[in-house]
Specification:
Blueprint (H helix, E strand, L loop, with lengths): L1 H18 L11 E4 L4 E6 L2 E7 L4 E5 L4
Antiparallel strand pairs: 1-2, 2-3, 3-4
Length: 66
């Protein structure tokens, strides 16, 4: 029983450490640019995002890893 508790604590601590920021990052400014009534472009650090808003749903295109 104690072994299971220690295992769970180790996993939780490792997860929390991995989520901690590596350092102070500069504030990122995100801008939303309307292209048309249904199409928007979101710009920020690292890439752009295209967003299409339709009656049936929303379509998102991210070019950061393209």
């Amino acid at each position: 029983m104690i072994g299971k508790i220690i295992s769970v604590l180790c996993v939780l601590i490792t997860g929390l450490i991995s989520l901690a920021p590596a350092g102070q990052s500069a504030e990122v400014k995100i801008m939303t640019i309307p292209v048309t009534e249904q199409i928007y472009m979101i710009t920020g650090k690292g890439g752009n995002i295209g967003l299409f808003i339709g009656e049936d749903g929303t379509f998102l295109i991210d070019d950061q890893f393209a």
